[in-house]
Amino acid sequence: MTPRGELLAPPRMSATAVRLFVQVCLVIYLWRGLYANTESSAGLDETQAVGYAVLAVLANRIRGLDRQAGRDMVIQHLRFGTIVYWYLRPMKPQRYYALRALGDQLYGFCWVLAGYVLCLAVGVVPPPASPSVAGVFAVSMLLGQLVLYYVMMLVDLLCFWTLRNEAALLILVFAQNLLSGVYAPLWYFPDWFITLSSFLPFQATLSVPLSIYVGRIEVGDAFGQLAVQAVWVVLLALLTRRLWDLAGRRVVSQGG
């Protein structure tokens, strides 16, 4: 539904393309400027740093779809009362939520794939060092997207108890971008910051797969990171499943 709505609004797609192009250009010039007087920093050379930054911008687009304009956010459904239809349909609300998110991510992946191919063609992003690196990166990226899916679901489920969580959403988006390495690779942060982020699920969403791609995490050391990502997926899946059951008890259909 959402990708179809985007296709019927060409100006929104044009704006997305322009914004993505500008963001990629800015991070390229930024990181090349930072490496103008040094060859290596935090274990990354210029090619790795620029490639990481560009991939982070592209990967952030996978969940970059804006549902607010279509009044299709969970907080909006709760405010308007239309959330009740999620519980009156034959399909369980968590399954509908999952299918909706899958559509969003597939649409976002199309943008990422197009941008990746273009950046690869012009030499901005280096290709994977080997087929094994590409395979491990793909698995890690999939696990990272699952972790991100459950993290964003937790924010939406919070709406059932707070009713207004715009501030919490903004804080979480900032924390997600900071602790997952969207703004800058975590390798540049102090050791205490890296240790603290290792106890949170955010770095499992983006920092780990991109670090594998650029070679900051070797393939031999990546399997431990994959195991951590898988553990986060299982823990968050169990937590959100329980929260869906509790949230359903708070929905009341009046007069129907």
From TrEMBL:
UniProt entry keywords in alphabetical sequence: Membrane, Transmembrane, Transmembrane helix
Claim: Hydrolase is one of the keywords in the record: no
Residues that span the membrane, as ranges: 12-31, 106-126, 132-155, 167-186, 192-214, 226-244
Name of the featured protein: ABC-2 family transporter protein
Species whose genome carries this gene: Streptomyces akebiae
